Amino acid sequence: MSNEAFFFKGYQKLKLNAPVNKDTVAKLLTNFQSAIVLKSILGDLSGDAKALYSQMIELEKEMIYGKTTLPLYKVFGVDKDGKGTTYKQFPGSEKFVQDKLSKDLSDTVVFYLRANAQDNMYFTLSGYGLTGINETTGDLKYSQFRMGTNSTGRYSYNFEGTKELPLGKVKSALKI
User: Fold this and answer.
1) Which among 14, 26, 59, 34 has a CA at the least distance from the CA of 147?
2) What is the per-residue pLDDT for 18?
3) What is the DSSP string of 16-33?
4) Nearest to 68 by CA among 99, 90, 41
5) Which residues contact 171 (CB under 8 A, 6 or more apart)?
6) Contact at 8 Å (CB) between 10 and 116?
7) Exposure winner among 30, 114, 128, 156, fewest CB in 10 A?
8) What are the residues whose beta carbons fall under 8 Å from the beta carbon of 145, sequence distance 6 or more?
C-alpha cells in the first residue's frame, strides 16, 4: 500500500519451525492483536494525511476529555523548591480538535510503524503517531507507542504510549 501519510518499515517473512513454544505463540498473537488495534485506531489507511491525523486527534481527545466538551485543567505538583508549572489548561474539546486540524499537513507522515523480526519467529512493533505541530517553529512532535506483551509464556496485550519525540529522533530510531 502506498500512502505518504503512513510509513511502514521492517516487514519480512517469518520462518517458524514446529514445534514452537507457548511464548512464541503468545507473541505471534500479540502481533495479530496489534494489527487489529492499529486498524481500529487509524481506520482506512487509504485516506490522506488530514484524514489519518483526524483519527489520531480523536484518540487524543478521548484520552484527555472523555465525554465532556468543557475546558479542562490538568493539575501537577510542584518541585521540591515549590516552583514549577502547577497546571496546564486545555480548551474545550471542539476547539482542541479544530486547532489541531487547522495545521498544514502536506507532505507529512502522520504515523510511522516499525516491525523488527525476532529470531525470525515474531515481531516487536513500535509506532510513532503525530500529536502536534509547534505553532512557532513548525516542528513535528510524535508519541511513541509500544505494542506487545509484558508476559512470558502466556497471552497478554499492551498498547501504551511511552514518550513524546521530535521528528528527528523518530527518523533516527527508524534509521531513515
Assistant:
1) 34
2) 84
3) --SS--HHHHHHHHHHHH
4) 90
5) none
6) yes
7) 156
8) 126, 127, 128, 129, 159, 160, 161, 162
